[in-house]
Design a protein that fits this description.
This protein is of the alpha+beta class. It has helices at 38-52, 59-78, 128-135; strands spanning 6-8, 26-32, 91-97, 101-108, 115-117, 138-143, 151-158.
Length: 160
């Protein structure tokens, strides 16, 4: 079994999404209630949205990334601090489509940066951000400024 080396990731020095937000051709978002069943709901929401946009061919990779981002938000930001659940907005999934790009972004109420570890394929968990990096064209995170507190973790996919 390999050992995990944890690394704190710094927020990117660029805007939240490396594309012009004013040229978005489609966007959709949904709330993620503070329970693990929300991961399945996020996958269904993603599948339905990509079908509506004619992007069914991207679903397998996007589904995996959405699952990982939502699981991380719930596990490390929402469910890890249930006393904050009433004081903070729930996690939220955002999907945005440009002519040549798709961005999946998950907002959560934690100010903590994502933590990536060296992939330990014998372990039960710890591979989420490795999978996000492997299946997306790029990814990053940004802290939210002002209220509400928290961050956005996003992944970008090129649209063929």
């Amino acid at each position: 079994m390999g050992t995990k080396v944890l690394t704190r990731l710094d927020p990117l020095g660029q805007s939240v999404f490396p594309v012009d937000p004013w040229t978005v051709s489609g966007s959709a978002s949904c709330s993620l209630p503070p329970r693990y069943e929300s991961v399945g709901g996020a996958r269904k929401f993603t599948r339905d949205t990509l079908r509506d946009w004619g992007l069914e061919g991207l679903f397998d990779g996007v589904e995996l990334v959405v699952s990982e981002l939502v699981t991380n938000a719930l596990r490390h930001a929402v469910l890890a601090a249930p006393q904050l659940a009433d004081e903070t907005p729930p996690a939220r999934l955002h999907l945005m489509h440009w002519s040549s790009r798709l961005v999946c972004a998950v907002r959560d109420p934690s100010d903590d940066s994502p933590v990536a570890g060296e992939a330990d394929f014998g372990a039960e968990g710890g591979r989420g951000l490795y999978l996000v990096e492997s299946f997306s064209d790029s990814w990053g995170w940004q802290p939210l400024s002002g209220a509400p507190h928290g961050k956005i973790v996003w992944a970008l996919f090129r649209v063929p």
